[in-house]
Amino acid sequence: MRRRILSTEARRQTLDRLDPPEWGPANYSSHVVRECHRLRRVVLEHMTPGDLRIQIGQKLSLRWLVPMALDVVEGDPLCFADFYAGDLLKVLLELPESYWDAHLDLEARLVGVLGTIEETPEELTEACLKFKSRQKAP
Questions:
Q1: How far is C-alpha 38 from the geometric centre of its chain's CA atoms?
Q2: What is the pLDDT along the chain (138 residues), one digit of tens a residue?
Q3: How far apart are CA 99 and CA 101, in angstroms?
Q4: How far apart are CA 43 and CA 50, in angstroms?
Q5: How far is Cα 117 from Cα 113, in angstroms, rounded to an integer?
Q6: pTM assigned to the model
Q7: Which string of b and e fits 59-71 if b means at least 16 CB within 10 Å?
Q8: Please, are residues 34 and 26 in contact by the beta-carbon 8 Å criterion?
Q9: pLDDT score, position 3
Q10: Given this model, what pLDDT does residue 137 score?
């Protein structure tokens, strides 16, 4: 079951609008910095899994982007965002424990996604083990 917790209205906005202040053009020439600035001006519903991966990997605008990334991985846990199958899932798994402690509903969704993976790709093994090791016992 896919659960969208961002409203349709929010998905029609940009991060510059939802998460002020506007960043404007990048003032540093690195590819990641330029992409992060560019993605602030992309309407959320037009972001690709690769766009989500880069922003979440930089720990940016998590309030808006993690629920969207969970929507994606709930539909296709091992989606290929940019580099390999499951790279979007991996950036979610690598978010700090403090993030998941503050967002238990989202953490439950991620745990559910992990439960659907029959065979963990090698690129995700370490991140999956680390994430699962911090789960509280019932």
A1: 17
A2: 445 578 899 999 999 999 999 999 888 889 999 999 999 999 999 999 999 999 999 999 999 999 999 999 999 999 999 999 999 999 999 999 999 999 999 999 999 999 999 999 999 999 999 999 987 655
A3: 5
A4: 14
A5: 7
A6: 0.91
A7: ebbbebbbbbbbb
A8: yes
A9: 56
A10: 54
Using CB atoms within 10 A of its CB, is residue 115 exposed (0-12), middle (13-18) or buried (19+)?
Answer: exposed
Structure tokens at 19: 């998460």
Q: Residue 16 is which amino acid?
A: D
Q: How many CB atoms lie within 10 A of CB 81?
A: 24
What string of H, E and C letters represents the secondary structure of the chain? Answer: CCCCCCCHHHHCCEHHHHCCCCCCCCCCCCHHHHHHHHHCCCEHHHCCHHHHHHHHHCCCCHHHHHHHHHHHHHHCCCCECCCCECHHHHHHHCCCHHHHHHCHHHHHHHHHHHCCCCCCCHHHHHHHHHHHHCCCCC
- Prior bond to 138 cis, omega within 30? no
Which residues, in sequence order, are bridge partners of residue 92?
A: none
One-letter amino acid at 54 equals I
